[in-house]
Amino acid sequence: MKLLYSPGACSIGIHVILEEIGAPFETERVSLKDGAQYQQAFTAINPKSKVPTLIRDDGSVLTEFPAIAYWLANTHPSAKLWPAGVEAQTRAIEVMDYVVATVHMQGFSRIFRPSNFAPSAADEEKVRKRGLEIFENGLAILDRALTGKEYAVGPFSVADAALFYIEFWRHSGKMELPANLALHYQRMLARPAVRRVLQKEGLA
User: Fold this and answer.
1) What does pTM read for this prediction?
2) Distance, C-alpha 162 to centroid of its chain
C-alpha cells in the first residue's frame, strides 16, 4: 500500500490508522501548497486533486477519508479499529462524516481558503468568520459527545483518527480545545502510532 499525503492535512488521520494497523505501507508526500495535487502526475492517480489517497497493493485507488478508514479497518480486523456491533459501527460513521463533511469541509475550509467560497475579495472576511463559527460549533458538539468517554465510540477506533486531525489543526493554530477534546487529544498524542506519524511527517 502507498499513502499519498500532505504533512498535517486530514491525511494525517489515515496515516495514524496505517501505523496502528502495522501492515507494510509506503508514503509519498504531496505538496499542497505548491499545487502538486493539480499536476498530471497526481491527477492521473486521483482526479479529485486531494489527499488522503491510498494506492492498494493491486494498484486500485481509494479516496475519501471515511471510505479509506472503513476499508483499512475491515481488511485488518486483528487491529480492532472497527467497532463491534451495528450501533457502534453506525456511531463511528456518524463521527467521521460529521468531522469531514461539516467541521472540516464547511468550517475549516472557509477559514483556510475563504476565496473558494467568497463571491469577491471583499466578502472573504465574512466567509472566514462564518467558517470559524461552524468549526467552533462542531467542536462543541463533538466535545459534548465525548463526555465521560476516553474515545469516540467505545475502545479506540478509526473515528478517533478523524477526531485527531481536527484537534491537531486546532492545537497547531494555538487555539484552546474544549475540555473533553483536549483530554482526547492528549490520549492520542500518547499513542506510539501517533508519535511515529508526527515524527515521519516532520510535525513532532
Assistant:
1) 0.96
2) 4
